[in-house]
């Protein structure tokens, strides 16, 4: 492992530790504020790293990245407004727990799950980085398309009580993803002649509108303060005995996050929804998901935080950025004269090992910093509710306009805020729309690439290879599994 003493001296130096604490704390705050998120935080910090040494600069960026993924769960639980798209699945059980006065316990489940998921991904990164990197290269367009289809089956899982409405919202999300420029031909689609829609709808603006602004509008329309039980919240850790029946979900969801994170172009939101759906299918408490079941929090938070470590696998081992976040990290490496790729492990082994240690320390620091930062965020909710509502709207609008610097994104956020209010009042779930919107671009691109590779023969997808066949088999089990279980239960009743 190289000179361990030199590596530890670099990692434990004052500059590196200061960057670790500051970056992780800043990331949690940025993630908790709806509309900001990982990309905005990294974009803000990147210029400041150019004059820093390599290890402290990467530590700062990794701290912002990991902290923001966890921070999104704070606002998701306390005010039903996910600070990042990765935390959308956290609202499904986190906010119901807060509504019945268990916000501190919900944050405890989320904090521990996030840290354990992150640490598991660090172990996977250290032990299996080269092997997982080679495995990731075996995923072509057809395999990624099958994985996206599997993620879309989450729509049925999160549409508790009305699958029809959930599927309709999923279709709306997929349709919204079609707006903009055709990824293959370059032609404009559904832009109605406006330049504003040529790049499509901004995901962050829509998420802000659907969750943050519609939450504020819903409180005004119904007179529901929404946060009376969570003001002054402190993290309350669950007892060890409560983990006994949920360890399997933690390990399975962390494994899903590690695998999905190693695949370029997928991301934490995909992993989170897949893990949530699989946990609901396999858990004996599956019928309680969506009503404030802690196992739903464990599935969502362990998975999306497990992505943070494994997402570094294609970045470090292959030099392939899987998304915008890892592309920024990749650019930071290049600026400091380090070329990621197959030779990184041999030419800069000390740096790679330092990154491994830094990721472990960031997850531990995230757990420690969560306690005071959650108290600060909770105290903000103890002020008069009309000011809280105004703050949600203000931060939401600022977040919407910050991402792309386009003032018209504010119109998108406000429009979807009113649309989200209508959906709330009529009982339509919001999560399926976000699932369709997040997965829509990758769904279309990989479908069309797969069709081009197979001369337009869609049936060839099912015989393209063992990985695609296995994923499509999982899709079939996810769709027809409940029907088969119900049929077997009836047969057992008849024979009994």
> Would you count the extended β strands for me?
2
Give the helix/strand class: mainly alpha
Strand order of the biggest β-sheet: 1-2
The poorly predicted ranges are none
Helix content percent band: over 70%
Global geometry:
globular
Please tally the helical runs, counting DSSP H or I stretches of 4 or more residues.
Answer: 21
Our measurement of the CA-to-CA distance between the termini, rounded to an integer number of angstroms, reads: 62 Å
Largest sheet: 2 strands, antiparallel
Give the averaged pLDDT, no decimals: 77
Q: Estimate the strand proportion.
A: under 5%
Supply the number of structural domains: 1
What is the alpha-carbon Rg in Å?
22 Å
Order of helices and strands: HHHHHHHHHEEHHHHHHHHHHHH
Organism: Paracoccus onchidii
InterPro entries: DUF112_TM
Protein name: Tripartite tricarboxylate transporter permease
Pfam family, one: TctA
């Amino acid at each position: 492992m190289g000179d361990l003493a030199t590596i530890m001296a670099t990692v434990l130096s004052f500059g590196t530790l200061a960057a670790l604490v500051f970056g992780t704390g800043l990331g949690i705050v940025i993630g908790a504020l709806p509309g900001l998120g990982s990309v905005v935080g990294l974009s803000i910090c990147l210029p400041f790293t150019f004059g820093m040494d390599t290890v402290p600069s990467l530590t700062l960026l990794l701290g912002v990245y990991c902290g923001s993924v966890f921070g999104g769960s704070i606002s998701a639980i306390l005010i039903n407004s996910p600070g990042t798209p990765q935390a959308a699945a956290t609202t499904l059980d986190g906010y119901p727990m807060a509504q019945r006065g268990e916000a501190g316990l919900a944050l405890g489940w989320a904090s521990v799950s996030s840290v354990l998921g992150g640490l598991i991904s660090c172990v996977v990164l250290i032990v299996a980085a080269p092997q997982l990197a080679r495995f990731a290269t075996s995923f072509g367009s057809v395999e990624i398309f099958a994985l996206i289809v599997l993620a879309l089956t989450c729509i049925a899982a999160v549409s508790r009580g009305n699958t029809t409405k959930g599927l309709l919202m999923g279709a709306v999300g997929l349709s919204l993803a079609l707006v903009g420029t055709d990824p293959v031909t370059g032609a404009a689609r559904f832009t109605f002649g406006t330049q504003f829609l040529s790049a499509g709808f901004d995901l962050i603006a829509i998420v802000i509108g659907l969750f943050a602004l519609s939450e504020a509008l819903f409180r005004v329309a119904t007179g529901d303060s929404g946060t009376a039980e969570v003001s002054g919240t402190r993290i309350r850790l669950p007892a060890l005995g409560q983990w006994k029946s949920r360890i399997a979900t933690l390990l399975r969801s962390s494994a899903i996050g590690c695998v999905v994170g190693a695949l370029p172009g997928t991301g934490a939101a995909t992993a989170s929804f897949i893990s949530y759906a699989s946990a609901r299918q396999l858990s004996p408490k599956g019928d309680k998901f969506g009503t404030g079941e802690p196992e739903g929090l464990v599935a969502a938070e362990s998975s999306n935080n497990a992505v943070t470590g494994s997402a570094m696998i294609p970045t470090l081992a292959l030099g392939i950025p899987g998304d915008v976040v890892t592309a920024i990290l990749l650019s930071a490496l290049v600026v400091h004269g380090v070329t990621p790729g197959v030779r990184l492990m041999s030419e800069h082994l000390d740096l790679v090992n330092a990154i491994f240690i830094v990721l472990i320390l960031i997850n531990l620091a995230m757990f420690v910093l969560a306690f005071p930062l959650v108290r600060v965020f909770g105290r903000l909710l103890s002020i008069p509710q009309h000011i809280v509502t105004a703050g949600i709207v203000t931060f939401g609008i600022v977040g919407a306009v910050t991402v792309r610097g386009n003032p018209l994104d504010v119109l998108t956020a406000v429009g979807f805020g009113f649309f989200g209010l209508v959906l709330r009042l009529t009982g339509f779930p919001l999560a399926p729309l976000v699932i369709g919107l997040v997965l829509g671009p990758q769904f279309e691109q990989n479908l069309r690439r797969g069709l081009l590779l197979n001369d337009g023969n869609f049936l060839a997808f099912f015989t393209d290879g063992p990985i695609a066949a296995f994923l499509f088999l999982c899709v079939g089990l996810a769709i027809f599994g409940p029907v088969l279980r119900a049929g077997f239960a009836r047969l057992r009743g008849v024979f009994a």
